[in-house]
Amino acid sequence: MNYGKINLITPPDTLFNMNPGYLLVKPSTKLKVQFQTLLSAIDEDINVYVYDTDEADIAWMLNAANSADWIIIDIDNCDPVTKNFVSLLLSQPHTYYMTGDEITPWGLISRNRIYNLDWILEAFKKDEDEDEDEDDTEDSEDNNERG
Predict the structure, then answer these.
(1) Three-class SS of residue 27?
(2) Would you put residue 25 in left (φ > 0), alpha (ψ -120 to 50) or beta?
(3) pTM attached to this predicted model
(4) Are 47 and 67 in contact (CB under 8 A)?
(5) Which of 3, 28, 74, 144 sits a CA distance of 20 to 30 A from 52?
(6) What is the pLDDT of residue 142?
(7) What is the predicted pLDDT for the residue at 42?
């Protein structure tokens, strides 16, 4: 099996390329382990932005959010400064969040609450299946043109 290249990007670094990207905001150790397990099943090049520093670098986090295709926030692990920006990130359609907080109505801002990262692997499998279907369609079109 051929594994893809994983670019791990943390503050203050940036990387500009066309790879799909994930931003993990204040991930717990459990979330990091789940994500690492998923990375072992992914065979394409990706960027992983990780914002888990004790020093607030909100500008970096917001820039990384603009670069990432998916944002995953562990709300319960956010410090007070980062938590001030959670609602802004949750308003983005590609943001998913985890929380055990049943009091704060995060669901009014976003319905993208998740309880684990299994959906990422399903999304990659779906993308791979679609890519294979496109390849099959292109091959049959080529054959039709020749035949």
Answers:
(1) coil
(2) beta
(3) 0.83
(4) yes
(5) 3
(6) 55
(7) 80
Tokens linked to 29? 């150790």
Q: Which amino acid is at 107?
A: G
Q: Give buried/exposed letters for 19-50 (b at 16+ CB in 10 A, else e).
A: bebbbbbbbeeebeebbeebbeebeeebbbbb
3 state SS of 51: strand
Domain boundaries, the chain: 6-116
- Any idea what DSSP says for residue 41? T
Q: Which helix (H) or strand (E) holds 6?
A: strand 6-9
Topology (CATH) of 6-116 = Rossmann fold (3.40.50)
The DSSP code sequence of 68-111 is -SEEEEEGGG--HHHHTTHHHHHTSTTEEEE---SSS-GGGT-S
- pLDDT tens track for 68-120: 999 999 999 999 999 999 999 999 999 999 999 999 999 999 999 999 888 77
| H/E stretch holding 11 | none
Question: What is the per-residue pLDDT across 12-45, written as a single tens digit (0 to 9) for each?
Answer: 999 999 999 999 999 999 999 999 988 888 888 9
Strand partners, 7: 47
Q: Structure tokens of 106?
A: 């995060």
